[in-house]
Amino acid sequence: METNKLITIVIPAYNLPDYTKKTLSSIAEQTYRPLKVILLDDHSPTSLYSLAKNFENIFSSIGIDFLYIRNEKNLAGDIILKMHSFFGDGWGLIVHHDDWFIDPKFLESCMDFNDRNSNCEIQFFYANAITEISQDVLVDNQDQNWKVINGDQFVPYMLNKGFTAWASILFKNDILRKIKWPNNLFFTDRITAERLDLDADDAFSAFHLLAMYGNVAVTGAIVSIRGQPKSSYSQSSAWARAGNSLFYIYYNLYKYKTFGKYGKKVSKHSLMCAYYFGFQTAEKINKKLISHFDTWHMKCHYHIIFIASKIGINRWLSRCWVSLDSGNYLYGICQIIAIPMKLIIKFVICITPVKLAIYFLKFLQWYIYLLKIKINSKSG
């Protein structure tokens, strides 16, 4: 078996056997070989052992290596640390147990395209996905064919087109091993998350790092479904506090010094990502995070991003950055000029007659209070 031809699929699974069955069935339908599949049971209350035994026979009969591992304790976000140890120097794929493939030729198309473009240094394949319940297409790309883009174009592509499901990303692992990822600079483990009051990272920083060292193959073809059970992260309230966590990761990527082919550009674009994703309405200034990044430069960027997010111009600023950085100066300058106008329009729309009446009554209440103080002082 050629190492560079092997695709290892790791499935982090927890307590949803019906979804996990869909995932494993969709992998069995993939036309590509050689495949190695690892089902990593994160100490599920509902054991996945019997399901694994059934698929062990199915995979064996079609020439797919299969391994079932059950963690002795629940690792939650830290499962990526264990998961990554299973990937060799070949290709890797992470399929969350509530996602599944709908294109049986997805992996075959990736490897065929890679063989035909072996001189392009493709670091990962980035395809499209659709959500299970809402039926949202995650990547706004109509092109059904594979296309190679430079690594420094990946961040703007992701911002403009959207971030896909993990099951739609096939990545090369040798560079990640060389730079010893995941590490505490880019991966927020449980201890770091608790210390800095952040969410544990699900490791999407890996793709930004890979983009620093080579090219990316992209397509708008839908190859997988992102499951939406009630217990999934995307359905939880954790999204309301993702901004500080994203800032932590993207600022580290921005400050990262590397000799990668596109390292400087991707690092520069990472700050643009910090602006773009910003902070959610429920989030406040994270003093622990500010203390951790104890530099004037970081504090300045943090507060600018925070304020821009609160007044709703963070994405406009990011688009300005993208335009100016890509040489589209006219559009970028127009965006900058338009920001004050957008703020005025937003302010006018937000001030409804009801709100105006409330503000007037509050002002009147405040004015009467001042008059009372003035009268009392005179009578005294």
Tell me what you see in this structure.
The protein folds into 2 domains: 3-235, Alpha-Beta Complex (Spore Coat Polysaccharide Biosynthesis Protein SpsA, Chain A), CATH 3.90.550; 242-352, no CATH class. Helix content is 47%, strand content 15%. It is built from 15 helices and 9 strands. It has helices at 17-28, 49-61, 79-83, 106-116, 154-161, 174-178, 190-196, 205-213, 243-255, 263-277, 287-292, 296-310, 314-325, 329-350, 353-379; strands spanning 7-13, 35-41, 65-70, 91-94, 99-101, 122-131, 147-149, 169-172, 215-226. Strands 1, 2, 3, 4, 5, 6, 7, 8 and 9 form a 9-stranded mixed β-sheet that branches. The chain starts with 6 loop residues before the first strand and ends with a helix. The model has no long low-confidence stretch (mean pLDDT 85).
The total number of structural domains is: 2
| Poorly predicted segments | none
Largest sheet: 9 strands, mixed
CATH architecture of the largest domain: Alpha-Beta Complex
Summed over residues and divided by their number, the pLDDT gives a mean of 85
Order of helices and strands: EHEHEHEEHEEHEHHHEHHHHHHH
Supply the CATH class of the largest domain.
Alpha Beta
Could you give a quick summary of the protein structure above?
This protein folds into two domains: 3-235, Spore Coat Polysaccharide Biosynthesis Protein SpsA, Chain A; 242-352, no CATH class.
Offer a few descriptive terms:
2 domains; 9-stranded mixed β-sheet; alpha/beta; single chain; 9 strands; Spore Coat Polysaccharide Biosynthesis Protein SpsA, Chain A; 380 residues
